[in-house]
Amino acid sequence: MRLKFYLISLVFTFFSSVLSAQKSLDTVETDFGSIILYSNKTWSLYNKNAFNGILNKRVHRLMTEEQNGNFTNKWNNDVCFSTRNDLSKLKDTIWLCVTDEEHPDFVMPVPGVVTSRYGFRSGRNHNGIDLDLETGDTVVAAWSGKVRYAKFNDGGFGNLVIIRHYNGLETFYAHMSKLLVFPDQDVVAGEPIGLGGNTGHSFGAHLHFEVRFYDSPMNPEEVINFDKKYLKSENLFVHKGLFKVGAKPSSVHDDNAPNENKVVQNKPATIKPQTKYYRVKTGDTLTEIADRNNITVSKLCQLNGIKPSSVLIPGKSLRVK
Ligand SMILES: [Zn+2]
């Protein structure tokens, strides 16, 4: 009787797996969203497009307010400009935390010198800043955030990565030879996102780097000192003046300017340059990763905004220092 039951269930299992190879077995919550596990040992992301793009509710509420200009900000993986907002019509001044306690790090995207600045150039506005590099050099995320766009752009950017950050800013990394991230991926400041190159409308390898807010470009030198390589301030006051064509960086906030009177080395080249990342391999556990990197599991969780119970995704980078 027991054997008969076993045979029936075996036959049933066989036919059900043949008939519905995509039968879902379980759903696992991860940092990427819900992953559905199928009976044929494949998986897929369940709520891949469920993210609404809002990483900062306070800023989004202010930006969408009627009295401020009624701006929108979509989450679109397919087009580089998700909405065309004209922020020179912004009515209020909005305070952003460029870095905050939860996302404290800034890392220069590449260490190269400036080869072209923001502003009017060859009859049109140069919406970013160009930084020198060699093809194949690693390009890293300036701040932590979520990848909105990662693909070849035939509008001139070439291989382009766009990261939306937790304060509502977006950064563009263009002309790369290779992309190392994919849309909807979470990245941390300093994490490699691509290799530098000369793709798209580019003459010689360089990184074209843009800082945008609700799709409108601003002078990246408003927030970063590219010559001395540091973040100018943890705060940014966004007002319509920042979005005037060719706007020069305002000199009012440069809280982190090195004090020239002090004898050197009181500022590192980048803020917190000793960050270190580990790429998760199949079978890794948080305890093992923490042990190997001489930190506690709770510190590891705190650095990455995860819980001890979080499921580790092979291939994803974790900050370990
Ligand atoms: Zn450029």
List keywords for this structure.
321 residues, alpha+beta, Glucose Permease (Domain IIA), Membrane-bound Lytic Murein Transglycosylase D, Chain A, eight-stranded antiparallel sheet, globular, binds zinc ion
Structural class: alpha+beta
What small molecules does the structure contain?
Answer: zinc ion
CATH topology of one domain: Glucose Permease (Domain IIA)
N-to-C series of helices and strands = HEEEHEEEEEEEEEEEEEEEEEEHHE
Low-confidence stretches: 11-21, 261-273
CATH top level of one domain?
Answer: Mainly Beta
Give the DSSP E fraction (strand runs of 2 or more residues): 25-35%
Number of helix segments? 4
Roughly what percent helix?
10-25%
Q: What is the overall pLDDT average?
A: 84
Strand count, sense and barrel status of the largest sheet are: 8 strands, antiparallel
Number of β-strand runs: 22
Shape: globular
| First-to-last CA distance | 60 Å
CATH architecture descriptor of one domain: Distorted Sandwich
By CATH's scheme, which homologous superfamily of one domain applies? Glucose Permease (Domain IIA)
Rg, nearest Å: 23 Å
